[in-house]
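Quick question, first post here. What does this chain look like in 3D?
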Amino acid sequence: MKITKLELVPASKYLFIKIMTDEGIVGIGEVGAWGFIDATIGALKKLEDYLIGKNPFQIEHHWNYMYRSMYFRGSVIMSAIAAIDIALWDIKGKALNVPVYELLGGKCRDKVRSYEAVFEFTPEKMARRCVELKESGFSAARLMITGDISKPSIDKAMDIFNHKIESYVQKVRACREAVGNDFDLILECHRSMNPCEAIAFAKGVEAYRPLFLEDPIPPDNMEAMAEVASKTTIPIATGERFINIQEFELLLQRKAARYVRPDVCALGGLTPSKKVAAIAEANYVTIIPHNPLGPVSTAACLQLDAAIPNFTIQEFPSFYHQGNEANMTKTPLVEKDGYIIIPDAPGIGIELVDDICEKFPAKQRSISAQIAYDGSVYDV
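> Answer (accepted):
Ran it through. Tokens below.
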């Protein structure tokens, strides 16, 4: 079998790809650098020159060739490699008539626990949405603690340390009181706190026993993240921005996280994500895959989740429901009581609908940063 073509499939806010072969088997993948899709297209076109005529089964070899070429690495290049890697695994599974999880060691579970984000930003509305999710079968929800990242802060009082921390704590308190004890709260901080704020906030919500505190500070300085982790009993989760396995190893060496969040479509695909799971397993750390993208990303995550012993919970993008994105695939994912059933179809388990580009016209996300009350910029 030989690779004959790489086709770009822009749909909605996503970029999918198809890799064609001379035996008619087609693999699908998805790009992770959603803010820079045009740049990723350039990387994909360059990598296509290498792929044409190659045997798609040599996934590890191709991954290393692409990763080690041209000296340069970064989120755009790794997102391109990720899309290709997922598509190659999809081809191999289809050719051998098995799900990808069989090629990764076999199934460890039949379904995966999942959670959705709460896109409400006042304590009362957040609590109400948590109750709705609980009633629909979910046992966990992601709270956007630091507010709506698409809008600038218009609250002057958020410049006051005590007011800011207390306003964040109130959100968690309201949600815990609304849902009771049989529900997990995931606290998404979007990297917008400094270490002092993160530690104070964590201490303020320890009594509500959240599942984890996600990216309380920017992840670039692992020593600072380790300091935050050492000052709270709440587990820290991070890693969604990482683009190589070495970053995860350094993070765990410093005991800076108890959950790690590889993004299959940003890290370089299933090939490095499986390695991250092994690194984490050796450190008694579990995996919570980052997944803010489309159905190919979700399907790839499910194959990883199925094949590793140290899985905790899967992020499930809210727009899968709100954006009618179940219609992007020929067979929707099967959900039940807050769990997603692992697809048993060959490859990654899904197929894109034939007219996806017409049903979901391309509309790239714009880049953005969070603007504070005084006009300054802070991390998102």
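Residues 110 and 342 are 6 Å apart (CA to CA).
The first strand starts at residue 3 and ends at 11.
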